[in-house]
């Protein structure tokens, strides 16, 4: 399946990634992306930047090397109550918010606890997507979370890094099962390279193959075209981004 938007990318500001925003934009163009989201880790992740980093993203141009840039964050799910570690002042400055489990922040619990955390995160209204849910360390009720995500218009991410096996080993079968459940309930899918080095940005060979395998409808893949992604942001109640009108 065609993918033109990468919604999960990191710069060296995350503390364990190795490229600049400009380098990411260069590779996004080379890899055929029309748009990407820059989503460095928020404060609870070791090595992450101060919240001023996110509040000041207004200085980032809307286009770099002809590729549209959305200002975002990968925030951490902190507890079963669905609280995340993004500073309250940061929300108004960001276009896109992913929430994820990370071992350094959220200790493994049981399936029920993980499910409660994900559902409460969705219901908080503070996040646009859930990141790399294939991680076998965080088992959860796929159907319950997919149904809740559909109800609240929160996208479920398919993460190319997880599918390559380089991180979150054991995610491959779970990602396929999650994708099939999301398809069955009629939810939205987003796609992220989770690039921690610029060469990986916009590379979706694994995700694209999985979407084809499960015959995911393209109108449910919000990264299929820039317009679909912007329409999803509008569905989420976000204000139009003037510079992107007509994309």
Q: What is this structure, in a nutshell?
A:
The protein has 247 residues and is of the alpha/beta class. The chain is 31% helix and 14% strand.
Describe the structure.
With 247 residues, the chain is an alpha/beta fold. The chain has a single domain, classed as TIM Barrel. Helix content is 31%, strand content 14%. It contains eight helices and eight strands, in the order E-H-E-H-E-E-E-H-E-H-E-H-H-E-H-H. Strands 1, 2, 3, 4, 5, 6, 7 and 8 form an eight-stranded mixed sheet that branches. Helix 3 links the parallel strand 5 and strand 6. The radius of gyration is 16 Å and the shape is globular. The mean pLDDT is 97.
Task: Summarize the helices and strands and which ones pair or pack.
Elements (H helix, E strand, L loop, with lengths): L4 E2 L14 H10 L4 E4 L13 H4 L7 E2 L2 E10 L19 E5 L10 H13 L5 E2 L11 H10 L3 E5 H5 L6 H15 L3 E4 L12 H9 L12 H10 L12
C-alpha geometry: globular
- The overall strand count is 8
| CATH topological fold name | TIM Barrel
Strand content: 5-15%
Secondary-structure element sequence? EHEHEEEHEHEHHEHH
Mean pLDDT: 97
Assembly category: single chain
Total domain modules: 1
Instruction: Tell me the structural class.
Output: alpha/beta
